[in-house]
Design a protein that fits this description.
Two copies of one chain form a homodimer. Chain A has six helices and no strands. The first copy, chain A, is mostly helical. Chains A and B meet through α2, α3, α5 and α6 of A and α2, α3, α5 and α6 of B.
Amino acid sequence: MRDAYADQLDSIRDDLLTMTRLVETAISEATKALLDGDATIAEQVISADAQIDALRVQIEEHSFELLSLQNPVAGDLRMLVASLRMVSEFERMGDLSVHIAKIARLRVPDVAVPTEVVPTITRMAAIAEVMIAKVGHIIANSDVAAAEELEQVDEEMDRLRRQSFRELLGSDWKHGVEPAVDIALLGRYYERIADHAVSIARRVVFLVTGEQPSYLA
Amino acid sequence: MRDAYADQLDSIRDDLLTMTRLVETAISEATKALLDGDATIAEQVISADAQIDALRVQIEEHSFELLSLQNPVAGDLRMLVASLRMVSEFERMGDLSVHIAKIARLRVPDVAVPTEVVPTITRMAAIAEVMIAKVGHIIANSDVAAAEELEQVDEEMDRLRRQSFRELLGSDWKHGVEPAVDIALLGRYYERIADHAVSIARRVVFLVTGEQPSYLA
């Protein structure tokens, strides 16, 4: 029979997966608010962030409790410390979704993203969502190989961000300063979301193997 | 007599203080590169970041070793977990300094910051440096009161960032898209450096008191 301690470790993993789903929704809805210029959805993303923050506190308290009371060693110790660090990353991803929603809200009833940049932003958002879904899979299955694949997906994000810069700094740009600044910051926010996904995946690799990912060497 | 374990905890704190000083130098030099349009200094900041990353790995390994071998409890446990989380924040501050240095390098022999925005950027950089110095003091002295003061300094940073946005989106802006995008991103980078300083200070408060800072409640 399993003991209460093993159940508690499982419940932290379940909470991390819930946090992953909340962040995935936040990014997806923030992008919807942005591309549709929808203030109601933007507000929902902004207020729903409190849920992500609350779950962070819950996971932190729970992890600390187990660290303090159970003197975990080896794999369990690494898992609890990794959880404490991963929740900070998820919380930041939630904050970045709020930043995207706030840019959407600021420009309502207009849409912050000029038509010709919509495909680039749509693709960046899609990649961010795919990466988050993969992070959920990686956490649920301790899938080290999938963590490695994530780094390749991240490269497309970097490429798209460079492309968005070329668009807004190009001679064809007719929208002036404000949309350019919006696009530059949005590119930064999606790129950072992707970076956090990569960083979480690396923590899972460390958790499973006890080593920093070899493809980083 | 003090034992080896206590000495090892002290040495982690010393390494954190070294990391603080390296980050302080990175921000100060990146700003110098930016405002003087100095490619040599920008390159130095970019290559010196490896030192910050190496110190991060060293502190992580050392903290993990103590967590694994010493089964620390209460204050020591919190200190080690806090160290693991603080090094991530310091590493990000180093990365943000590199981003600032890269904007400087991209515009050489020009200066990325238009003359009339120089005072705002200079002030943002000065605040970031003051905040980092305070973080060093807070870590060295477990100074909870100073951590609270830091939140007030951070408010000036937020105010300055809003001001830089008013400047670049105002009708007087004559510099076009590229410098506007640079200033928007620079504002974001300095603001994030300040956010990390606040976050580290909050971790020290948690370390000392065992409670989340009360002024957050």
